[in-house]
Amino acid sequence: MPWLSILMAVPVLGAVGVALLPKGSDKLAKQVALLVSLVVLGLTVAMAVQFSPNGNRFQFEEKYSWIPSFGVHYGVAVDGIALVLIALSAILVPIVILASWHDAEGAVAAPVRDAKGATETADVKTEVVPPKRSAKTYFALLLVLEAMMIGVFAATDIFLFYVFFEAMLIPMYFMIGSYGGVQRSYAAVKFLLYSLFGGLLMLVAVIALYVVAEKNTFMFPELIGAIQDPTTQKWLFAGFFIAFAIKAPLWPFHTWLPDAAAQAPAGAAVLLVGVLDKVGTYGMLRFCLELFPEASKFFTPLVIVLSVVGIIYGAIVAIGQTDMKRLIAYTSISHFGFIALGVFAMTQNAQSGATLYMVNHGFSTGALFLVAGFLIYRRGSAQIADYGGVQSVAPLLAGAFLIAGLSGLSLPGLAPFVSEFMVLIGTYERYAVPAIIGATGVILAAIYILWMYKRTMNGPTAESVKGFTDLNGREKWVVAPLIALIVAFGFYPKPLLDVINPAVDKTLTNAQVTDKQPVSTVAEKKGAGQ
Amino acid sequence: MNGGTIEAPTIEYALLAPMLLVFGAAIVGVLVEAFAPRYLRKSIHVPLTLLALLGGFLLTILQAVRDGVPTTPAAMGAVAVDGPALFIWAIILILAFVSTLLINDDEQFVAQAAAVPGSTDEEEAVRSGYAQTEVYPLLLFSVGGMLLFPAANDLLVMFVALEVLSLPLYLLCGLARRRRLLSQEASVKYFLLGSFSSAFFLYGAALLYGYAGSLDLKAISAALGTVAGQDTLLFVGMAMLGVGLLFKIGAAPFQAWKPDVYQGAPTAVTALMASTVLVAAFGAVLRVFWVALGNLDWDWRPVMWGVAILTMIVGAILAITQTDIKRMLAYSSIAHAGFLLTGVIATGAFEQNREALSAILFYLAAYGFTTVGAFAVVTMVRDAGGEAGHLSRWAGLGKRAPVLAGIFAFFLLAFAGIPLTSGFFGKYAVFSAAVAGDALPLVVVGVVTSAIAAFFYVRVIVLMFFSEPAADGPTVAMPTIGTSAVVALAAAATVVLGVFPEPVLNLADQAASALFIR
């Protein structure tokens, strides 16, 4: 069965169906979108259980000639790394759809604030609430985005990867630009131009790769080892890496992210930070390391420095934020520093940890953004100072926020802890000093999360918060699966690691790196424990 | 007479049939103007023009399918109907056909060109429902010239073609129904600058004749190796010829006419110019520089590098400051001419030339359709004073007319070269040819300017979709069947070439397979 093609076709057809619904059927559009995304999730699960971690590297392969003149194939397949990221996307989309139920309705959020007198309501309204837009379009865009997210991780043809890499900007651009906050068009344009610029540099590298390799194909497996000349490798690496570093985003290419994430509706922000940005770190792991092993080693010190700076910088700047969504965006910059650090530390532990982190970060940041989104929906403001004592009026909401936050600071027992720990251990094997400096990011994380929690949830109940309702049924359904996953993978990450580890092995082999250090690894300990 | 006989030239009528058909129809059109009653003219002209263009297209296809590509020039070596020429003919004829559907719209053209703007004569003309139906034969003459221009194998024939294609366009530019002074100004500017460039071309041709002793492209190419001591003639001639040709494609620093003319001309004519003229002119540029001066590429390539870089930068950067949609599209067209020039420069061995040529041909096809579609949308967005050209008037169009704005956004994304649009593959093809042709720095400039260009395309999308509509914003005119057909066709072409480009890539490849015949 062409699983991956079906996974992409279903959301695309769903999007067309949603878009073709008659005017005024917004409710039906949401239901159809949710149903479609659940079908995709079901299919993904059905595919994932058939995946054999120790079988061929790439499974569910499909390969058809697409543009013979350019040597381009429609080539899709998954290895363990791609599989977990596709699963992440498939899990997040239905949750995001459910969470975005009222996002397109704009002014609906107003009633809670009416108690505070007309003038302030008006102020608040202009500050955050976007005008009413077509819900149909929003959910159609979301489904198109889902298809492209699956495509970008599944592509084994570099040209096809590039096509998805660029094309997926467009639905996200419209989601931010049409449905975001007050400065949405600025944020959307900044997001698009940054990404396009990186993408175009990558295009040059893609073309040059094809020309230099002289293999007459873009199929990734055939291009491994095709470029031998170190200088060429370095230039091509730079082309790919800058694109991925902007996408991820790595310090100092990060400035678009806080704007985009803060202005995007909460659901879109989850997909932006949770999945789209992973394409950057995924690209580093998959393409940079394997296609240009020499250059990767050459640039490793630089990347590690950037990552560590990103970890610390993101965390410190996050502490100073007054806007919840911006704060969460900066924490992500810190976390992406960890992921990039893990990718370039080039040890089994660090890379497995980085891959696991990509998944866990999707869940934990997703939960944080969504719960913050519920808060903002109630109050109409993203300013931390506008809240206080929410715990006493909406305990469930506060509790969900706390768990999501604690997972963000990598509390042991919650999923991100495992991955962060693996990254730090794995990095320490090779680069002790960066690992030690990076570890201080964990402490800073406690500051920004707990301080935000304290200011919003504890203390005297703010006047404007008094009318808050607790999580309703829909919102519980949004939060519950995420928290369940965070806790489950916190205690038992083995199913994910079993899938990821063999894939990372292959990556390291192709990147011509071996774990030389005799330090016993977490993976080995796990093996010993069984 | 001294008793000698003048041999009648041999003409391959079958080969030249598409061109002859178009010219013939143009002459019939003139006769219609002279003899048919006013109320009948338009209903004769429209089918006549469309049929002539369609017929020309079918004859071109027939030629390519039945007889294959000829290997020797026709008409005593004056016209080379080779693969690239046939491909370019087919594109020009389709695009002209599509543009004719746009021209078939009374709102576009002045009632009586001779009436002074704002005079009582003008009011009188409008009241009596006059229409300047000469538009159709003029268009046909111009298209005939465009067919001859890229196929001319002789500098003199090429000059004649240049004039035949340009003169009707100068006139057509001045026929806008609204803002007539702007339109007439555009016409005069285009005429003056165009005449200058023609003079340059002619002078260059004369100097090259002085150098090579022939105007035949093949003979000039042959002379490059044999004639010595005449280099001044050669280089000055080449430079002047280059000025004339680069003017037509709107390459910097000869681009100044483009924004003014595109803005002032009736939008349907702009659509025709922006698509077909660019295609024809690139055909001629390629023929002159690759056939006649191909062995001299070490000499002209550095200059062309400069021109290409300047063109891309000027086009992309000046477009940012534009506030009129047609001017913006004009600068965008300049930037695209720059991207195409990177392909012209990517010469090398036979295989390399072939790849570059097929890339350029594909780019021209892709760009032509998107351009016609974009201008067709521009004709539909109107307010009380005619077309709403100022960008601020486009704010919130996505709310008023979501489908139309969506299609226009799609065209803009195609111009920006986003994957899954035809523009992406065009750009990809040209850039990859340039990389293979050792022009990597040029490609880097190309992608950087593409990123800059993306900014102003995206800005229009922001205006249309993310801004609130102005209270007295423009309305979207109910499109005529012709206009909607144009938009639909252009959108379909942009999608299909963006998802399944292979058939057209293949065609372009076959057309380029033997390069130009000499």
From TrEMBL, chain A:
Keywords recorded for this protein, A-Z: Membrane, Transmembrane, Transmembrane helix
GO terms, molecular function: NADH dehydrogenase (ubiquinone) activity; NADH dehydrogenase activity; ubiquinone binding
Localization (cell): Endomembrane system; Membrane
Topology of the protein relative to the lipid bilayer: Multi-pass membrane protein
A cellular-component GO term for this protein: membrane
Start and end residues of each NADH:quinone oxidoreductase/Mrp antiporter transmembrane domain: 155-434
Pfam families named in the record: Proton_antipo_M (PF00361)
A GO BP annotation: ATP synthesis coupled electron transport
InterPro entries, sorted: NADH_Q_OxRdtase_chainM/4, NADH_UbQ_OxRdtase, ND/Mrp_TM
Listed transmembrane segments: 6-22, 34-52, 72-99, 138-155, 161-179, 191-213, 233-253, 260-279, 299-320, 327-346, 358-377, 389-411, 431-453
Record PANTHER family: NADH-UBIQUINONE OXIDOREDUCTASE CHAIN 4 (PTHR43507)
Family: Belongs to the complex I subunit 4 family.
The protein's name: NADH-quinone oxidoreductase subunit M
Organism listed in the record: Planobispora siamensis
Lineage per the UniProt record: Bacteria, Bacillati, Actinomycetota, Actinomycetes, Streptosporangiales
From TrEMBL, chain B:
Keyword Transmembrane recorded: yes
Ranges of residues in domain NADH:quinone oxidoreductase/Mrp antiporter transmembrane: 152-452
Cell compartments where the protein resides: Cell membrane; Endomembrane system; Membrane
Class of this enzyme: translocase
Residue intervals passing through the bilayer: 13-32, 44-65, 85-103, 135-152, 158-176, 188-212, 232-257, 269-290, 302-321, 328-350, 356-381, 401-420, 440-466, 478-500
Reaction(s) catalysed by this chain's protein: a quinone + NADH + 5 H(+)(in) = a quinol + NAD(+) + 4 H(+)(out)
GO annotation (BP), single: ATP synthesis coupled electron transport
GO cellular component terms given for this protein: endomembrane system; plasma membrane
Pfam families per the UniProt record, alphabetical: Proton_antipo_M
Membrane topology reported for the UniProt record: Multi-pass membrane protein
GO molecular function, a single term: NADH dehydrogenase (ubiquinone) activity
EC number(s) given by UniProt: 7.1.1.-
Keywords: Cell membrane, Membrane, NAD, Quinone, Translocase, Transmembrane, Transmembrane helix, Transport
Subunit structure: NDH-1 is composed of 14 different subunits. Subunits NuoA, H, J, K, L, M, N constitute the membrane sector of the complex.
Function: NDH-1 shuttles electrons from NADH, via FMN and iron-sulfur (Fe-S) centers, to quinones in the respiratory chain. The immediate electron acceptor for the enzyme in this species is believed to be a menaquinone. Couples the redox reaction to proton translocation (for every two electrons transferred, four hydrogen ions are translocated across the cytoplasmic membrane), and thus conserves the redox energy in a proton gradient.
Protein's UniProt name: NADH-quinone oxidoreductase subunit N
Species name: Planobispora siamensis
Source organism phylogeny: Bacteria, Bacillati, Actinomycetota, Actinomycetes, Streptosporangiales
